[in-house]
Write the structure tokens for this entry.
Amino acid sequence: MRAIILFLVVVNGILGVSVFKLKNNFIAKQTRLDDLEVLIRETKEAIAVAEAEWHFVTSPQYLKNLAQKYSKLKAPTPAQIITLADLPPVRLQSYNIPEEVFEAAKQEAIKE
Amino acid sequence: MTESRALQFPLRRARARAGLLQAVLIMVFMLVSVRLGDLMLLGEDANTHITTADPKALRGRIYDRDGNILATTITRPSLSVNPVKIKDPKTLTYKLISIFKDYEFDALYSKLTAQKRFTWIKRHLTPQEHQSILDLGEPCLEISFEQKRIYPMGELFAHVIGFTNIDNKGLDGIEKRAEEALTNGEEKKLTLSASYQDVIRQSLLSAIERYNAEGAGGVLVDVKTGEILSLVSLPDFNPNELKKSDAKQLFNTITQGRYEPGSVFKIATAAMGLESGQFTPAHMVDVTKPFRIGKYTIKDYYPSSQPLSFTDVFVKSSNIGAARIVKAVGKDYQQAFLKRLGVFDKIKVDGLDTVSPTLPKKWRDTTSTTVSYGYGFALAPIHLLNVLAPTVNGGKKVEFFLEKKSTSEPTQCESVFTERASSVVCNILQNVVINGSARQAKVKGYLVGGKTGTTEVIANKKYDKKNNITSFVGVFPINNPRYMLYINLHKPKATKDTYGKASAGWNAAPVGGEIIQNLAPLMGLLPLRND
């Protein structure tokens, strides 16, 4: 009987130490997880602010004001819009593109 | 012997007790061992799992058709205080006033001395204010983080998106209509485009300035699919600075304003005449004499001494001609036709608060006549556009919508009249732009059709002859109608450039033309090579 009790005490001792270590491990990981969750939330918030700012600075109104202030760019007029077929012929020899390759690419682009 | 027998009984009892105690101890140890083994080998108990509080889902974003953010949510610090804990409220008031310049001393001091355990000082602090508060190092001040709704495009989509209150509850527009979905973090993608919206808004703002108008509105729709591509109502407001707006700015004239459509409604009369089979484009209509109905006499703004063709009735925008057409087809046919177009039903558009039309109580002969040229009833501009869309899209009744559909399936549309009649209407509208009242809506490089309308403003139940609402309905490209544009100007004034005139042909039509000229290239519409 003594042997059984001794055996159980030893087993319980080993298990107790193991559980203690496990618990410590768990708490450390939980803390790390909480830190990561906070970091993710903060990063998400920072991204949300950055995205909002990005869409503000790229809004048509804002860009138009900047274009008017710092450049002479204006919206294109219908007369400035042409199709690929309207483009003047390119000097193919300066790019070493065979004429048939160029024509095929041009026809494909027109189709698109 | 007797003594030994006497001792045996207590000994046996003691052994039995010791055995029982040992058994209990073994059981306890075994239970502890099983539990320890369970904890270590089979993982943690579900009841002991530590969970971190899931932060409340951020209110969903709203995007335009190109993925631009129209409304988003960020977290901002808010400042509160427990007045009971403040030791020196006067000094703290001075300190806080140096940070919050818009606060008055008395107002803040009374907050800090209130008999409460909690009071807000300021919600949604700016980063500078937040830092200044942290620098103060006052232990009685409390910072908490809250969601704040922001609108990166400012005024551009104000009337469609609407706004929320400080607690992020939707109070108007999409914010209100999609409250539940947005609160649950769902995102909304709209059919509107920031580029188109900006083009229309800028043109209307310039028009208000140029013609000294009180307001303006514009809608652009795809008549094939029913997508609303742009919706502008001016004056508008900045949803980021709602406190600076007044009631007039908050009113969406396009969805909630009711106006008599005026001559733009002749588009429907033209479609009705053609659909009845009683008229062809070349059919002659007598407009030489005023049209009398009961005690009323209908006259034309520019009287004609000769009969006009059916097409020219609309090119010249003849009220007499429109009245004669409706007289020929009959008021019952007219009523049934307008019912098919949806004039009598309240328009429903997901995400928009719309209003019912104002209709005459009885459909008399006079009613029938005035309706033919757009008087005697009133409807919201978005409703008007929905009614007119079938006249140019092949006779299909389309439902307008604002939220982008996830599938690319074509919308099922009910056919309300023939494709042939619709095609002739387009031809008439093109003639109106080439030779008629909408000449100033011509756009170099694009085929445009359109119709103008000028209605007198109703003030004190009377028509105010000095003030008009001018409007223009444009369709482009008219050889393959895809887009329909409606714009209106509220009380535009005559200018030197308009030779003293304030009718739609002189203000709404050129503005419409300017908008189409700027929109068409953006929409990828190639201009004609030979204009």
